[in-house]
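Chapter summary example.
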Amino acid sequence: MARDARVLVLFVLALLFGPLLAPTLAAEVGTVEKKVFELSSYTTVGGKTIAPVRVGWESYGTLNAAKDNAILITHFFSGTSHAAGRYAESDPAPGYWDAIIGPGKAIDTERWFVLSSDTLVNLNVGDPKVVTTGPATVNPATGEPWGMEFPIVTIRDFVEVQKALVESLGIRRLHAVIGASMGALQALEWAASHPAMVDRVVPVIGAGEVDPFLVGWLDAWATPIRLDPNWRGGDYYGRTPPTAGLGAALKLVTLHARYHEWAEKAFGRAWAEEGKDPAAALGHRFKIEAALDAAGAARAKVADANHFLYLVKANQLFVAGGGGLAEGLKRIEAPVLLIPSRDDLIFFPARVERTAELIRADGTPVEIAWLDGIDGHLDGITAIGGVADRLKSFLER
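The structure predicted for these 397 residues follows.
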């Protein structure tokens, strides 16, 4: 059943997003094995203990004898470790960044050992290929799901678990940390919190902090869940889950991550159903409304509402390095390649440029490579191939 739900999600998103899930024509990394990393105990930044912690991870390419060719990929809010390749030849689409990860590509797996892991409180706990620890997982101390007793976790906590995974492989320095959106926040946190371990950092469609306006937007994303009577204050495990609220929340995320040009090109003002003019009845809808509903509902089939809320909180709390923004970004010593979208409605261009200014303030090299697309924030996935040469050059210097 879980695999059927995952296939449905891919099908609906393919209809809605087109190029995002289109099969790649270039060489792929091939079949990917999903592995599991476990810590017997982890203490959060807030001082709470989670025991045990399990996260899924995967890799592409080969770690060399010196263990100095590793690149870490960090994923976005609704993403997973699956950045490239396919788990099976029958998979309808490869990982989300297959356009730039693989043999001869910008992140060349013939040269680099590339790894990626699921975060704590990963959204997609219903996906059989996702391994994560969060509210929906069983607390061994009680034998019941953690629920809202799960500790608050931050982007820094995501990074610390990744650090433990990296070190378990004998890797002491990362050639680069690269991530999109929430992954960009993790990349910047890596560079600010562990500057001695990061040689390069590539934040894609992200900035040095989640500003107050975005804090408000994240709260808006979460509101439909809290209003769903089935949420029950987070106590719904073993009962009917708040699927309607979660679907509506994911609908908001889907639209916010896009731009008006995408909506005009993909849907225009077409009606959802032939013969049902939206002007004739409240129940008659536009095609974009129906498509967004379908996308939200499909994504909700493998997602968890409490995990969504914990991810919202982790993002709202983010300031690179902790403390003040200027102070945190000053800790970054590695060269930085920022890859933003000029049409981003989540991390506005001015915020990215401010991030660049603050990192440069003490002489740290910073470059900006602007994405060219019509997808707004999601250009960081759909239009990433347009900066492939720039990224490849940055990694090979």
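To summarize the output: The longest strand covers residues 53-60.
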